[in-house]
Request: fold
Amino acid sequence: MTRTTALDALHRSLGATMTDFAGWDMPLRYGSERDEHNAVRTKAGLFDLSHMGEITVTGAQAVDLLNYALVGNIGSVGVGRARYTMICREDGGILDDLIVYRLEDSTYMVVANAGNAQIVLDALTERAAGFDAEVRDDRDAYALIAVQGPESPAIVTSVTDADLDGLKYYAGLPGTVAGVEALIARTGYTGEDGFELFVAPADAEKLWQALTEAGAAHGLVPCGLSCRDTLRLEAGMPLYGHELTTALTPFDAGLGRVVKFEKTSTGERGDDFVGREALAAAAERAEANPPRRLVGLIAEGRRVPRAGMPVVADGQVIGEVTSGAPSPTLGKPIAIAYVDAAHAEPGTAGVGVDIRGTHEPYEVVALPFYKRQK
Reply:
């Protein structure tokens, strides 16, 4: 059975084109995905992200469990702050990338990607053996609504008395938004400033309507998953199943910085964590002789690259596209790809993408393609 969010009827009333995404019926677009994309870059967009998977970890040893189960140093996350991290297999392969929020001294919320939520839940439950901690599936306890874009602070400020000026990036605080109890997080997946609001599903429609009304004067529009993908692509943000897979370690993905071999922990396991040995070896390999690196590609022509297409140079395959799409902001097709280290430097000449037998020329650039002005 395909799952629906608490906002399903509302999306349909707005004429959304719906699609199956990770077992959820989700809005793909409401009208023009280009217009939705540009609204987020210049004004603001409203997203239903209730397909994401929330997992609560509580107990005296909650932090020790998370330090052991995940690659990051969760012990250094303060109350009210959040951290981007990953959960890996024993061989170092990435099971998922996550955000961990520390809600209270001994209470954490792990937010997993929709398609991996059950995998992450199962892994955390298994790894909790021997820890004084509880892992709880809270996927049905939350709806998640995001407001993203330069106008988002003004919009959310108008319907809350929470101190948003004092809310830093990757931080969250409990508050009331439009009369609804929420966890207000300054996080997002668009490359813009914005907020993700975790609320009870029963309150989701009231909050959506209030934000729609508050945002009308600011150019806020409802946005689907299609423009969310082009926004994150321009911002150089990885997508699980594309830039991140179990076949890759964080070091392979150019995200070795999220792996912390020293942990702030009071537990018996200290700095030990699942995948530590394999990741230490991967770190050495990446420093000595990285096989491939993640780069950006900008088309010289108009043909759009897609995931799985070969990257070529001098008639040889030197890599593979992981994500590609037309970029509304740049006005050209763009792609993220893993390429051989010898061809990974920005400006490397002679690189192309094999698009159905034709080698289309592409410029190698450093990620991200787009970075907002702060």
The two ends are 43 Å apart (CA to CA). The longest strand covers residues 316-327. The first helix runs from residue 8 to 13.
